[in-house]
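User: I'm putting together a small comparison set for a docking exercise, and I want a reference complex before I start. The sequence is below, and the ligand is acetoacetyl-coenzyme A. Could you produce the 3D structure with the ligand included, as structure tokens?
Assistant: Of course. I'll restate your input first, then give the structure tokens for the complex.
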Amino acid sequence: MVRQITVIGAGTMGQGIAQVTSIHGISTRLCDVSAEALADASDRIEASVEKGIEKGKTPASARDQFRRCLTTSTDIEEACQESDFVIEAVPELLDLKASIFARVEQVVSSDAILATNTSSLPITDLASSLQHPQRFVGMHFFNPVPVMALVEVVRGAASSESTVEAAVSLAVALGKEPIVVQDSPGFATSRLGLVIGLEAIRMLEAGVASAEEIDKAMELGYRHPMGPLRLTDLVGLDVRLAIAEYLHQEIGEQFRPPQLLRQLVAEGHLGKKTGQGFHRWS
Ligand code: CAA
């Protein structure tokens, strides 16, 4: 039974994970270097909890659970020292993640589990600089975390069976459906999701159809809840570009980032979070 969780990184994914852990009554420390990001995250989590209650998806008791269980901190050591589970959700930079886990390892107890929410970076590489790589695992959540049922648990070469089981049990306790996959570039979800997302961008570049029409094709023709370009906007064009660059290097040409994706990222059009991506967001 997990007593206290630290979520590192108060961006979209960190907020969603902290919302879900806190409304399930687990003491949750949300940690970020920016006090402003933490204040913004608390407001957004509260609004999302209210939306869930309003829609009848979240019990009204979640409001008190969230207020009681969620605290924030800009001090990573202080935020982690009492926790038996740490989930990192910072930007997709291997060195940044590795440096965070090196600090976390200094303060957590010897049996604490360390998890990364990376969408694609190799779990085995991240674990390799740790003193206890057997306690390291991937726990890949999906956006929006309170709504999406899946957690992709990624087994690194050194992850122990009990670590994988702990991640699976936590996912189930949070009301999610876990799958366990081997550590392979892009795991199961990002690798498949990227193929459709990148091809949709190439089709837009080639003038096959408009962004609206390409999205409608998959929404109405294949019953995807959201077309691939709108989904790229939701995930963040910068996030998708980083994954594409990594998969291009590891797997091959089918993941080469389209020029249009690079251009929009360079212009700061990152999707929903900036108000403009392949679509305009209000
Ligand atoms: N808390 C709990 N439940 C909530 C909620 C909240 N804050 N907000 C909404 N919901 C529930 C609603 O009640 C509704 O449930 P039902 O379908 O049972 O009625 C459902 O969530 C949808 O909510 P909305 O009606 O507000 O919105 P929508 O119908 O327009 O759906 C969406 C929005 C869920 C985002 C949907 O478009 C969707 O599923 N899109 C695809 C999302 C997806 O593929 N995400 C994965 C991205 S990839 C990723 O994250 C991984 C990565 O590594 C980058």
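The domain at 189-273 is CATH 1.10.1040.10 (N-(1-d-carboxylethyl)-l-norvaline Dehydrogenase; domain 2). The two ends are 41 Å apart (CA to CA).
User: Thanks, that's exactly what I needed.
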